[in-house]
Design brief:
Blueprint lengths: L5 E12 L2 E13 L4 E5 L6 H8 L7 E6 L2 E2 L5 H8 L2 E5 L2 H4 L6 H11 L8 H11 L16 H13 L5 E5 L7 H18 L2 E5 L3 H7 L2 E6 L2 E7 H6 L4 H8 L10
Parallel strand pairs: 3-8, 3-9, 6-7, 7-8
Antiparallel strand pairs: 1-2, 1-4, 4-5, 9-10
Bound molecules: adenosine-5'-diphosphate (ADP) and magnesium ion.
Length: 260
């Protein structure tokens, strides 16, 4: 593998439940190469979103290391941290809660271009139109408010915003889980196209092995904060070794069809 974009080692995070500390994430290590999709799978509460927050440094780990593009990400601060943050982005399940619902689409896409100084004021409308086209939306959508557009359109806007800074990694936490099946398929295809064209790595979090089989190269299956098993996605899903892997496969009946 090429030098990894993201390398996480021995990550741990404890929370308290009923006064007792418990590990939400327990000794988790993995890495993601350029243009690779690594999926995090596991039942609800297994620690997937906590890992996403740790990787994005929205929360700090108790122990562990996060290396992003070869740099010790947890040691960065100030301008160095801000510059590095432009290189990775995130897309969550519900863009309505991630954005101001009354903001226009243009405003949502203008922010990263302005904040990271990627285009001058006069260039930005053109860049916004190009971003919209890139994710399969009409330029006319720019004037609409976030709350006025459909869930699928909103998720395309979230993806357009994520790629505006030309990131090397996007963390997607249940990014297609709230979409109905046909829209979900279109968004997954868009993600695959963008990955091929821009060589973006994805940390793709999902509880749905059908979706993971369709997009991920490798998968890490979590059980109560620990890695139960990991490997090539299709091989693991075809022949899970861990109890939790077997249970997740058994709970996804459409895996038995040839296409998810
Ligand atoms: N801020 C928090 N405070 C206390 N417990 C938390 C917090 N965030 C998550 N947890 C707990 O940590 C565990 C893992 O949660 P999470 O990472 O959200 O799982 P997943 O995304 O796989 O559903 C769960 O038991 C959850 O209740
Ligand atoms: Mg979650």
């Amino acid at each position: 593998m090429n030098a990894p974009v993201l390398a996480v080692s021995n990550l741990a995070k404890h929370y308290r439940r009923g006064g007792q500390p418990f590990p939400a994430v327990d000794d988790v290590s993995f890495s993601i190469g350029p243009a690779e999709t690594l999926a995090l799978a596991g039942p609800s509460g297994s620690g997937k979103s906590t890992i996403a927050r740790l990787v994005l440094r929205l929360i700090e780990p108790d122990v562990g290391r996060v290396e992003f593009e070869g740099a010790d990400f947890l040691a960065l601060s100030g301008a160095a941290l801000r510059a590095r943050r432009a290189r990775f982005q995130m897309v969550f399940q519900d863009p309505l809660s991630a954005f101001n619902p009354r903001a226009t689409v243009a405003r949502v896409l203008d922010d990263p271009l302005r904040i990271h100084g990627l285009a001058s004021r006069t260039e930005r409308p053109r860049r916004i139109a190009a971003l919209l086209e890139r994710v399969g939306l009409e330029a006319g959508l720019a004037v609409r408010a976030i709350h006025e557009i459909s869930g699928g359109q909103r998720q395309r806007v979230a993806i357009a915003r994520a790629i505006a800074t030309r990131p090397s990694l996007i963390v997607l936490d249940e990014a297609v889980s709230a979409l109905d099946v046909s829209v979900r398929g279109q968004i997954l295809k868009l993600l695959l196209d963008l990955q091929r064209q821009e060589r973006i790595a994805y940390l793709f979090i999902s509880h749905d092995l059908g979706v993971i089989r369709a997009v991920a190269h490798r998968v890490v299956i979590l059980d109560a904060g620990r890695i139960a098993e990991s490997g090539e996605a299709r091989a693991v899903i075809a022949n899970p070794q861990s109890a939790i892997g077997k249970a997740l496969v058994a709970a996804t009946p459409r895996l038995n069809r040839t296409r998810p």
